[in-house]
Write a structure and sequence with these properties.
Layout: E1 3-7, E2 17-23, E3 30-31, E4 36-41, E5 46-50, E6 55-59, E7 66-68, E8 72-77, H1 117-126, H2 144-149, H3 186-201, E9 204-212, H4 214-231, H5 237-251, E10 258-260, E11 263-265, E12 272-274, E13 276-278, E14 281-283, E15 286-287, H6 295-311, H7 316-319, E16 324-328, E17 347-351, E18 355-361, E19 364-378, H8 384-399, H9 401-405
Parallel strand pairs: 12-16, 16-17
Antiparallel strand pairs: 1-8, 2-4, 2-7, 3-6, 4-5, 6-8, 9-19, 10-11, 12-15, 13-14, 17-19, 18-19
Helix pairs in contact: 5-6, 5-8
């Protein structure tokens, strides 16, 4: 017998442990070279693990096991020969059912008229005797369903005392009291750890403002069709917000900086992380060099990252980096929130739902599409006045998008 050991490979410099999220091939199943046998879930992505040889697969680790880099996952018996004309997986014999025959009437046994434990409890609650119920189970046993359908025999009701109060009773079987446990995914555990770290290890504050999106909505309405015709993608709000933030970040480098021990790291570029909701949790892959991209390029980059994130295809490189984050709770209907920092970044902008609200414009009350903005920041890096100024600058650019387009 020749055995090849399959061990957890080196995935990335920062990844020291993975979770075996699911087996793609069963124990005892024949696998081919480079055929995926299982999936690993790391802190940042889900990865397939291919077979290093052809042969019979022998599971060593179990699903949901946490495995360190280099840990043994499975073994492959390369001396095994794939059976011809048969499924790769070892097939279990299928029992053939005998033809139906007419059975003679069953004689009474201990089970006849005897309730199951669940049925016995229900009958006791209904105050019904087992002798008054016909059993439909094996050998005449009274099942839970029989007990639930059973009704007490009609009896002559006792005279009710005057002024009696009837109390409505609800059978206990009407409610569910079941609970279940499910292990947190590695991504969810990583998210939880990082959020607690951001809350405990930063001096986080949030400042708020609101932006009038009248001009942006008019711009999109006027040029959307031509934009799609030329670039093949819609002009969304996110690219405009990202561009406004990138321009302001380069003007205010403190907001684009991060702490590293006793030093501050400043960036002459704006890599803006975009929060994307996936079935496994929130991920924040960055769009790099937003300050140098046009709006169509930003939209394509965001769309590409979103598709990859929801399909679980993001690479570690695509998940790394970022100097500033934008999160849009408005797509879920959030009116106001305080976004939490994405460490080691020093600031995050929270977008919210657009609402038609009355506002004062040149002494007149008008209904305008308004959005609340929230900027959470690390006060160790960013002063209060800096955070307020940053948000005001972003607000002005969004309310006058022509100045943003012309880079004024």
């Amino acid at each position: 017998m020749s055995i090849v050991e399959m061990k957890v490979p080196v995935i990335g410099e920062s990844v020291t442990e993975v979770t075996l999220s699911q087996w793609l091939k069963g124990n005892g199943e024949y696998v081919n070279l480079d055929e995926p046998i299982c999936e690993f879930e790391s802190d940042k992505a889900t990865l397939e693990f291919p077979a290093e040889a052809a042969g019979l697969l022998i599971h060593v680790a179990a699903e949901e096991d946490d495995l360190e880099i280099g840990a043994l996952v499975a073994k492959i018996d390369t001396s095994a020969v794939k059976p011809e004309g048969a499924s790769s997986k070892t097939e279990e014999p299928v029992e053939t059912k005998p033809e139906a025959v007419v059975e003679p009437a069953k004689s009474a046994t201990y089970a006849t008229g005897h309730p199951s434990p669940a049925a016995s409890k229900i009958l006791a609650e209904k105050n019904i005797s087992a002798a008054d119920v016909d059993g439909s189970g094996k050998d005449g046993r009274i099942t839970k369903e029989d007990a639930m359908k059973a009704a007490p025999k009609a009896t002559t009701p006792a005279p009710k005392p005057e002024k009696s109060v009837e109390v409505a009773t609800i059978p206990a079987t009407s409610f569910s009291r079941e609970t279940k446990r499910k292990k947190m995914s590695r991504m969810r555990r990583t998210i939880a750890t990082r959020l607690v770290s951001a809350k405990n290890n930063t001096a986080m504050l949030t400042t708020f403002n609101e932006v009038d999106l009248t001009e942006i909505m008019a711009l999109r309405k006027k040029y959307q069709e031509r934009f799609v015709e030329k670039y093949g993608i819609k002009l969304g709000f996110m690219s405009l917000f990202a561009k406004a933030c990138a321009k302001t970040l380069l003007e205010m480098p403190d907001v684009n900086a991060q702490i590293d021990g006793t030093e501050l790291i400043y960036h002459d570029y704006a890599d803006i992380s975009i929060a994307i909701s996936t079935p496994n949790g929130l991920v924040v892959p960055p769009v790099k060099n937003v300050e140098s991209l046009n709006y169509a390029e930003i939209e394509r980059a965001i769309k590409g990252l979103a598709v990859k994130a929801r399909n679980g295809d993001l690479t570690l490189d695509e998940m790394s980096g970022g100097t500033f984050t934008i999160t849009n709770g408005g797509i879920f209907g959030s009116m106001m929130s305080t976004p939490i920092l994405n460490e080691p970044q020093s600031a995050i902008l929270g977008m919210h739902t657009i609402q038609q609200r009355p506002v004062a414009v040149n002494g007149q009350v008008e209904i305008r599409p308004m959005m609340y903005l929230a900027l959470s920041y690390d006060h160790r890096v960013i002063d209060g006045s800096t955070s307020v100024t940053f948000l005001v600058k972003v607000k002005k650019l969004l309310e006058d998008p022509i100045s943003l387009l012309l880079d004024l």
